[in-house]
Amino acid sequence: LREAHRIDPAVAALRQALLLNPSLRDPREALIATLLDGGRFSEIVTEAKALVKVAPRSVFARDILSIAYLQLGKVEKAVRIVGELVWIDPLNPDHYLKRAMLLQQQDNVRAAVLEYMRVLEMASEDSEAYECAEEALEMLDDDQIRQIILLASEDRLFHWKLCRETTDAVQERGFFLSEDGIARLRHFAQSHLADIERGQRQQGQNRPHQRARPAIKRIQDRRIDQVKLLLDRQRPGVQKRLQLGLQVEIAALAREG
Question: What's the rounded Cα separation, in Å, for the pair 208 and 99?
Answer without folding.
Answer: 52
